[in-house]
């Protein structure tokens, strides 16, 4: 079997998870680590193997690179993905798909015209708890889905926003807690709930005003075409990073995700359905452990020439909802 060649662009905080996930795949070789800060690229190359480069365009000339991982800031995803897809490379990009909708749409179009595939890292869909919730909704075993609640309370301080210079700005991050931290939970809510018919919400900068342009706190209400509803509360202004909480209410029972465990409450009894796996090295626990599963699955689809499910069309859904909450918040303030 031919070895597939991989490259990673962006050797900042998330790249170790990509490098480690690739290193677990016997039929894939990590060939190039790119960062515009050459020192970072070289440090990553010496840690994980492969060559170092400071300009991603070098990849376009490389026939030995099949798959490219985008671990760069949000506003860099679209330009890179479009060029790489045009050159026939497969691209797996970190969330969010892009900083804005137009850029994300360009990525989706480029993927439609490429022999390469576009995958989006929304790794929480691979959590056993997420898969279990989805299966229970699909099976109808607890009756109709009535409502959902998602709570994301994390801590991001001034020091976090100072790193890299791209965070905390509309032009480069594309938003705050919603687009960067809560997008995983928002993505799960829309995956579970199906098409969304109405979005309301409000965003504020409660603690980091004067430090960041974007919101550190958000709440939103979603009404699904099915009639179900969901609420989301997200903040980066909490004292610590708490596990995400989810509540999924059905006609005949309720699922609770607490401390990364999933419980079913039904007929006055509570049953543990799943516990979290141990985190792999390089992963902060609140990022979850889905990266290695998602990346393995992406390569399997590439290898077998099958369409990968978490593609641009899927990845743009949560991004659209993020932007709709911003719009709802903006117009609510005008009224
Ligand atoms: N899936 C998750 O749970 C998760 C967790 C953390 C971060 N992320 C995502 O990963 C991406 C990167 O985040 P991060 O925290 O690692 O950021 P970071 O700032 O730590 O790293 C980004 C790196 O990209 C490099 N870079 C920027 N522009 C470049 C360019 N034009 N060419 C080459 N290199 C360039 C920077 O020098 C930096 O080293 C973001 O999309 C973020 O949302 C996802």
Automatic annotation (TrEMBL):
| Domain of life the protein comes from | Bacteria
Record's protein name: Gfo/Idh/MocA family oxidoreductase
Q: Where is the GFO/IDH/MocA-like oxidoreductase domain?
A: 131-255
Q: Which residues form the Gfo/Idh/MocA-like oxidoreductase N-terminal domain?
A: 6-120
Look up the signal peptide feature and give its range.
none
What positions belong to coiled-coil segments? none
Q: Which SUPFAM superfamilies match?
A: Glyceraldehyde-3-phosphate dehydrogenase-like, C-terminal domain, NAD(P)-binding Rossmann-fold domains
């Amino acid at each position: 079997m031919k070895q597939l060649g991989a490259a990673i662009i962006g050797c900042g905080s998330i790249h170790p998870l990509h490098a480690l996930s690739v290193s677990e795949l016997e039929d894939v070789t990590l060939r190039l680590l790119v960062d515009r800060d050459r020192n970072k690229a070289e440090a990553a190359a010496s840690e994980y193997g492969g060559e170092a480069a400071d300009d991603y365009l070098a990849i376009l000339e490389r026939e030995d690179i099949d798959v490219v991982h985008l671990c760069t800031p949000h506003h860099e995803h679209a330009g890179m993905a479009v060029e790489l897809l045009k050159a026939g490379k497969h691209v797996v990009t970190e969330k969010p798909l892009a900083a804005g909708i137009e850029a994300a749409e360009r990525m989706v179009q480029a993927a439609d015209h490429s022999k390469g595939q576009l995958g989006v890292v929304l790794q929480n869909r691979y959590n056993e708890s997420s898969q279990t919730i989805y299966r229970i909704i699909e099976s109808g075993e607890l009756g109709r889905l009535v409502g959902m609640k998602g709570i994301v309370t994390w801590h991001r301080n001034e020091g976090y926003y100072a790193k890299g210079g791209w965070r905390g700005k509309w032009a480069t991050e594309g938003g705050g807690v919603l687009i960067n931290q809560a997008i995983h939970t928002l993505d799960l809510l829309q995956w579970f709930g199906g098409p969304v018919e109405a979005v309301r919400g409000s965003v504020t900068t409660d603690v980091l005003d004067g430090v960041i342009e974007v919101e550190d706190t958000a709440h939103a209400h979603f009404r699904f075409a099915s009639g179900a509803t969901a609420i989301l509360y997200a903040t980066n202004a909490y004292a610590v990073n708490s596990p995400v909480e989810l509540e999924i209410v059905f006609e005949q029972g309720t699922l609770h995700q607490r401390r990364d465990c999933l419980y079913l409450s039904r007929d006055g009894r509570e049953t543990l359905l799943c516990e979290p796996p141990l985190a792999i090295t390089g992963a902060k626990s609140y990022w979850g452990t889905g990266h290695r599963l998602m990346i393995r699955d992406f390569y399997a689809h590439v290898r077998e020439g099958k369409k990968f499910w978490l593609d641009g069309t899927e990845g743009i859904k949560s991004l659209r909802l993020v932007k709709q909450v911003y719009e709802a918040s903006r117009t609510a303030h005008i009224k």
